[in-house]
């Protein structure tokens, strides 16, 4: 808590550490009223550091120092200096052993950083800079050490004691206590340290690696969750196999453990050999988790597992390099999900997130490069830009090099840097060295913030049979960055003939269509390029930026006719979907500017009719294509958006579609009715999704048959996807009585399951019918709501501000001041969550004036809160600048 300005850290000021630590010996004494941490470090001067006589400087946060000893000799208070965030020992030899004993209070730790308690169990979260909340340490990722950890605790309340590596010793102690010692043979940065102590049950399995080593797999959960681990375990085994087959990466310890905890700031954490997960990202059963949750769990388990190589074996030199591990690992988990599921649908989902939320971030006050140049509080930089845009950057390297050279590059990267803490530049260099490609200009993707804009124009020369495509690129200014250079952009495209056939792409006037490809990746490197395609007897329809080959905006004057054509003919499934989105966006936008419902584009209705009846097309794609662009996306696309007008227009289009297609929706519903047993395959997921979309549309127009179907589905459901689909449809309808009955019954049935209660909160707080401010206020008073649990806060406050946009942007400003109140309240207990929740307000400059001035005042009120945390300080001040 501070009133002074937090310090800015600059990448340009990076210096190698003055001291290195080879081994860390930890002993934890865990008690009800606190914990004593004994730490013994073997320290030596870093030969690569210029600061030969530098003092030993250790980071610390909220620690009570009990002892310090150097080479076994207790230091006097005059030998060291203890400040609010450091322990400095001025005179130290070139090599020595340092012992530090600290006292901490996990039971009072509400920030959930360092060692804390969650439902009675001790657990840790150290990334990025919270190992310093446990003991004094050079808490930076380029100090890598081997850890040995002894945990002592009460045997009955904490029968299970876990840390990184392999357990090497255990035994009983006096007073009903016991201990276990763990040893991790791999040097690691402090942010990968983990400890868990509690009353947990374990699900066991084994995995045999490609070289024939047997690995013990363990998922630890509270006893009530014992039956919800199977999906995570299967996902883990699939991930392990996939990483061997796709990247040649084998697991390295004898045991791999996952622990589920209810109170967790993020999704999950890749601590070496001991991943800690937010319960909502690991626990699942057919009755309690939706298809989406099953898929997310699989992706997150894979993501954390993949970090064992991309993050742990090769780690980050400093936190500016965060995307080195996160961007690469997201790319890896996205490829995995595509391989085990529906690749087109996975791509659609990723691009939706990117274009809706990352583009907004990149256009807002907190815009930063994939490799930031400065920060105040690193936890504010676990962003969509670092993760999602970072993954797109790796994907582009993959596109430019092709799969084989990319694999050569990743092999070289892992081999060259195993055991090291490195930079994004080292990653790119390995890709260059393995492929022989020059990625100098490509590196701008790491340095320049902002979403590049491609403006495309074309003309057709019938006489010569030449089609010319001109692509201009510009990269917008972002805070602190202007006058940017053109970037190296892989631009995949195809050309379609009048009956939908793929035309050969002949970039030269060379004869012979024999080996002309039907899809090419053009490489854009300049502000403007013109490409000539020869030998075309007709004007083609261009299919641009296929698979979304680069994270850019494309502006091209598509006619609605062309979009309808691409929707049904583009061989690239992603672009088919995208054409549908563009058409729907165009239709909704016209309605925003001239609200005449009678003019709603009939071709959109017909396209949806065709989709509803198309059982030949991949049903997973059909399900996606029937989803209208979200309000958030429409807002992102608009200049000075009027939220209420967008909300109204979108609802009108939805109602118009539902009214016009009422019979087709009913038919689609029945065609996709649940058949046989519940399965999590792309086909059955698609069926449930289509059915739930049909239901939602029918309830949108208060169709009584739809209402019956929803009630029936609710009482018949044998899985959460169907149950939630029906509940959501009712909650978002005007059937007020059915809505309250359904919500009450649902709560009654699932009140003992926190993960389901979170979904129950979200379905209300995201709904403009059930989630207006007074109702949100009531949810905060609900006995199941808990201010100490980030998931509950997110499912009410976060979902309201991020997804219930018409209610949040109530023109009277009540939504904004509500959010400001909650953010201020949270800042005292969990500043990291407070700084994340404030995000919607930081976009104030984008909105129409009536909204933006109210948003700004809400932000100013937060700025003026006494004792603002560094986390909030950075976000609020940067957005008001
Ligand atoms: N490193 C985690 C991941 O992406 C995310 C995380 C960051 C978790 C910081 C906790 C704290 O897998
Ligand atoms: Zn990660």
UniProtKB/TrEMBL annotation:
Residues 232-442 form the Peptidase M1 membrane alanine aminopeptidase domain. The keyword Zinc applies. It catalyses: Release of an N-terminal amino acid, Xaa-|-Yaa- from a peptide, amide or arylamide. Xaa is preferably Ala, but may be most amino acids including Pro (slow action). When a terminal hydrophobic residue is followed by a prolyl residue, the two may be released as an intact Xaa-Pro dipeptide. Residues 561-881 form the Peptidase M1 alanyl aminopeptidase C-terminal domain. GO terms for biological process: proteolysis. Pfam families: DUF3458 (PF11940), DUF3458_C (PF17432), Peptidase_M1 (PF01433), Peptidase_M1_N (PF17900). Its EC number is 3.4.11.2. Keywords: Aminopeptidase, Hydrolase, Metal-binding, Metalloprotease, Protease, Zinc. It comes from the Bacteria. GO terms for molecular function: alanyl aminopeptidase activity; metallopeptidase activity; zinc ion binding. Its cofactor is Zn(2+). Residues 34-192 form the Aminopeptidase N-like N-terminal domain. It is an enzyme of class 3 (hydrolase). Residues 450-556 form the Peptidase M1 alanyl aminopeptidase Ig-like fold domain. Aminopeptidase N is involved in the degradation of intracellular peptides generated by protein breakdown during normal growth as well as in response to nutrient starvation. NCBIfam families: pepN_proteo. Belongs to the peptidase M1 family. This is Aminopeptidase N. The lineage of its organism: Bacteria, Pseudomonadati, Pseudomonadota, Gammaproteobacteria, Pseudomonadales.
């Amino acid at each position: 808590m501070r009133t002074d300005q937090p310090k800015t850290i600059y990448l340009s000021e990076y210096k190698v550490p003055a001291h290195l630590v080879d081994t860390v010996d930890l002993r934890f004494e865990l008690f009800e009223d606190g914990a004593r941490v004994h730490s013994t470090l073997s320290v030596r001067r870093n030969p690569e550091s210029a600061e030969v006589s530098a003092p030993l400087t250790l980071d610390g946060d909220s620690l009570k120092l009990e002892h310090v000893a150097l080479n076994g000799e207790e230091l006097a208070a005059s030998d060291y200096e203890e400040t609010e965030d450091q322990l400095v020992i001025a005179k130290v030899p070139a090599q020595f052993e340092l012992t530090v004993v600290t006292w901490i209070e996990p039971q009072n730790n509400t920030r959930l950083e360092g060692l804390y308690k969650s439902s009675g169990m001790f657990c840790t979260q150290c990334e990025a800079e919270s190992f310093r909340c446990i003991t004094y340490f050079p808490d930076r990722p380029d100090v890598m050490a081997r850890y040995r950890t002894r945990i002592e605790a009460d045997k009955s309340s904490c029968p299970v004691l876990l840390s990184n590596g392999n357990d090497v010793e255990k035994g009983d102690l006096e007073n009903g206590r016991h201990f276990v010692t763990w040893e991790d043979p791999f040097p690691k940065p402090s942010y990968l340290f983990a400890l868990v102590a509690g009353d947990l049950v374990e699900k066991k399995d084994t995995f045999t690696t490609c070289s024939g080593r047997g690995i013990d797999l363990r998922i630890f959960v509270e006893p009530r969750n014992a039956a919800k681990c199977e999906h995570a375990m299967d996902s883990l085994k699939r991930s392990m196999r996939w990483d061997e087959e796709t990247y040649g990466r084998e697991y390295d310890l004898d045991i791999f453990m996952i622990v589920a905890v209810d109170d967790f700031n993020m999704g999950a954490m890749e601590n070496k050999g001991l991943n800690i997960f937010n319960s909502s990202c690991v626990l699942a059963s057919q009755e309690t988790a939706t298809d989406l949750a099953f898929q997310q769990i699989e992706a997150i388990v894979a993501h954390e597992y993949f970090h064992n190589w991309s993050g742990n074996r090769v780690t980050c030199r400093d936190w500016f390099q965060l995307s080195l591990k996160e961007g690469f690992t997201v790319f890896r988990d996205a490829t995995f999900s595509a391989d085990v599921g529906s690749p087109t649908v996975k791509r659609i989902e990723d691009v939706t997130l990117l274009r809706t939320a990352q583009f907004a971030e990149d256009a807002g006050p907190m815009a930063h490069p994939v490799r930031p140049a400065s920060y105040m509080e690193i936890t504010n930089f676990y962003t969509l830009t670092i993760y999602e845009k970072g993954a797109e950057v790796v994907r582009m390297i993959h596109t430019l090099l092709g799969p084989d050279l990319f694999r050569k590059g990743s092999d070289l990267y892992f081999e060259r840097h195993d055991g090291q803490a490195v930079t994004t530049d080292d990653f790119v260099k390995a890709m260059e060295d393995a492929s022989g490609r020059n990625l100098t200009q490509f590196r701008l993707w790491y340095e320049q913030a902002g979403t590049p804009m491609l403006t495309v124009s074309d003309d057709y020369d019938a006489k010569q049979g030449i089609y010319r495509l001109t692509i201009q690129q510009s990269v917008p200014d972002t805070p602190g960055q202007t006058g940017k250079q053109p970037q190296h952009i892989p631009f995949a495209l195809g050309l379609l003939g009048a009956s939908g056939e793929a035309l050969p792409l002949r970039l030269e006037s060379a004869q012979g269509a024999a080996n002309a490809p039907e899809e090419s990746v053009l490489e854009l490197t300049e502000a403007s390029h013109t490409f000539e395609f020869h030998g075309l007897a007709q004007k083609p329809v261009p299919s641009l930026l296929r698979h979304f080959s680069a994270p850019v905006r494309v502006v091209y004057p598509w006619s609605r006719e062309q979009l309808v054509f691409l929707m049904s003919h583009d061989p690239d499934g992603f672009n088919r979907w995208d054409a549908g989105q563009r058409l729907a966006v165009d239709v909704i936008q016209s309605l925003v500017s001239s609200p005449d419902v009678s003019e709603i584009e009939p071709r959109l209705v017909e396209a949806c009719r065709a989709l509803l009846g198309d059982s030949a097309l991949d049903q997973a794609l059909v399900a996606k294509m029937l989803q209208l662009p979200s309000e958030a996306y429409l807002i992102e696309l608009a200049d000075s958006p009027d939220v209420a007008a967008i909300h109204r227009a979108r609802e009108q289009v939805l109602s118009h579609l539902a009214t016009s297609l009422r019979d087709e929706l009913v038919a689609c519903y029945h065609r996709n009715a649940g058949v046989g047993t519940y399965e999590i395959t792309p086909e059955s997921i698609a069926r449930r999704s289509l059915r739930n979309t049909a239901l939602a549309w029918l309830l949108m127009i208060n169709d009584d048959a739809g209402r019956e179907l929803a009630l029936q589905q609710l009482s018949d459901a044998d899985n959460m996807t169907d149950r939630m689909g029906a509940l959501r449809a009712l909650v978002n309808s005007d059937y007020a009585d059915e809505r309250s009955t359904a919500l009450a019954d649902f709560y009654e049935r699932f009140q003992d399951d926190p993960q389901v209660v979170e979904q129950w909160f979200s379905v209300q707080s995201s709904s403009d019918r059930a989630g207006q401010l007074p109702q949100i206020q009531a949810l905060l008073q609900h006995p199941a709501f808990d201010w100490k649990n980030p998931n509950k806060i997110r499912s009410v406050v976060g979902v309201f501000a991020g997804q219930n946009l018409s209610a949040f942007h109530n023109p009277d400003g009540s939504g904004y001041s509500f959010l400001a109140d909650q953010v201020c309240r949270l800042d005292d207990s969990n500043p990291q969550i407070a700084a994340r929740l404030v995000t919607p307000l930081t976009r104030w400059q984008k909105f129409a004036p009536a909204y933006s001035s109210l948003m700004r005042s809400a932000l100013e009120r937060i700025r003026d809160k006494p004792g603002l945390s560094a986390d909030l300080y950075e976000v609020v001040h940067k957005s008001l600048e």
